[in-house]
Write a structure and sequence with these properties.
Elements lengths: L1 H21 L4 E5 L2 E4 L7 H15 L2 H8 L2 H9 L9 H16 L2 H15 L2 E2 L4 E2 L10 H5 L3 E3 L7 H10 L3 H16 L10 E4 L6 E5 L11 H18 L2 H16 L24 H14 L5 H22 L14 E4 L4 E5 L2 H14 L8
Antiparallel strand pairs: 1-2, 3-4, 5-6, 6-7, 8-9
Helix pairs in contact: 1-2, 1-14, 2-3, 2-5, 2-14, 5-6, 6-8, 8-9, 10-11, 10-12, 12-13, 12-14, 13-14
GO molecular function: chondroitin hydrolase activity
Protein name: Glucuronyl hydrolase
Family: Belongs to the glycosyl hydrolase 88 family.
């Protein structure tokens, strides 16, 4: 517990120092130890507000809530004025901003924004194929971009809690029904028979017929991108939490085992499991480790007692290793919490950096280990 308290103080101090510098800006990834920002939050803006709400829960220091709320105008502008920029990551954006605010404070305006975001998300649902379209058509006529009309990506499984929450909050099953449809479609397509995952999967947007798996951020179409595998194990864990469907718990546990079996000796995965065991020029992804650690702690709540300690202990060891060997605890000028994250290796973008979502899930895992968070997902 003493080590966890040390890590907690590290998270609190670094986050407050950053918030005092960042103002209402939304960080994405670091360059030479300094965070860069996305005006509209990109797909990652909620992780910064979520990190501040976590710090509020762990400290009861109201300044963190003020820091989180200072960015609200960026989220509402995007939802109500710049809708062409929204995609399936509405869950990441609004579960950790508006919904978190409402759960913590009963802020009714935040509740409305969260439900409006859920309405926007189900508006992306393709009835014929029973899937939520992940991305927009970025460049009409470009073959890859055109495929977006029928593309799902594994990250969406971790966006579905927004929809489950909206049904619980409103009593309207339409949100939950879409979330379940997405989970079922993913289970039959993007989850392979051996419980590894494709990054994306393409459907015929007119007929709904499944076509093929394809990567974007992974090494190859048939490889297993480690962060995507973490999204799967956590996404299906939360789907089970909201539905009680044992099939989802089975998928979560099997995806977890794939992840565990491919970890490096220090429990931090390579960016793609193709490179398990390491390869010169290839990098780890601490953000995948952090997502998995937080997800293992949620999974531990839903398995028999004999298995709970296994997942809990594994998550704790990952958190401790991240802190000891991959954190910025000895680098006060570095604005990130975790180093050696990998954003988009195929495009050589964000390599060996801090990523705000890696920082967020690291903090979430710490808060979970301390039993000091109650509102997330």
């Amino acid at each position: 517990m003493e080590k966890l308290q040390e890590i907690k103080q590290f998270v609190l101090a670094k986050t407050k120092g950053n918030a005092l510098k960042f103002g209402d800006k939304l960080p994405h990834s670091t360059e030479q130890g300094k965070y860069t920002f996305m005006d509209n939050g990109f797909w990652v803006g909620g992780f910064w507000t979520g990190l501040n709400y976590l710090c509020y829960e762990m400290s009861k220091d109201s300044s963190y809530m003020e820091f989180a709320r200072s960015s609200n105008h960026r989220f509402t502008k995007r939802l109500y004025e710049d809708r062409q920029t929204t995609d399936h990551d509405l869950g990441f954006l609004f579960s950790l901003s508006s919904v978190a605010d409402y759960k913590l404070t009963n802020n009714q305006e935040a509740r409305k924004v969260g439900i409006d975001a859920a309405d926007e998300l189900i508006g992306r649902f393709h009835e014929v194929g029973q899937y939520i379209q992940a991305w927009n058509v970025w460049t009409p006529g470009d073959p890859f971009s055109e495929e977006n009309r029928g593309r799902i990506i594994i990250d969406c499984m971790y966006n579905l809690p927004l929809l489950f929450w909206a049904s619980e909050e409103t009593g309207d099953p339409k949100y939950k029904n879409v979330a379940i449809a997405q989970a079922e479609t993913c289970a039959k397509s993007i989850i392979r028979p051996d419980y590894t995952t494709y990054h994306t999967y393409i459907f015929d947007s007119e007929t709904g017929e499944p076509k093929y798996g394809k990567t974007f951020q992974g090494h190859a179409d048939e490889s297993c991108w480690s962060r995507g595998q973490a999204w799967a194990l956590g996404g299906y864990t939360h789907a089970y939490r909201y539905t009680g469907n044992m099939a989802y718990l089975k998928i979560a546990k099997q995806c977890a085992q794939v992840f565990i079996d491919r970890l490096e000796e220090d429990l931090i995965p390579m960016w793609d499991f193709t490179f398990q065991g390491g390869k010169e020029g290839e990098t780890r992804d601490t953000s995948a480790a952090a997502i998995a650690a937080a997800s293992f702690l949620e999974l531990a709540k839903h398995v028999p007692a004999a298995e709970q300690a296994y997942y809990h202990d594994l998550a704790k060891r990952i958190v401790f290793n991240l802190y000891e060997f991959y954190s910025t605890k000895n680098d006060p000028e570095n604005e990130g919490l975790l180093k050696e994250a990998t954003a988009h290796k195929p495009k050589n973008s964000g390599i060996n950096v801090s990523l705000i979502y890696g920082d967020y899930y690291f903090a979430e895992a710490v808060a979970r280990l301390l039993n000091e968070t109650v509102v997330y997902w």
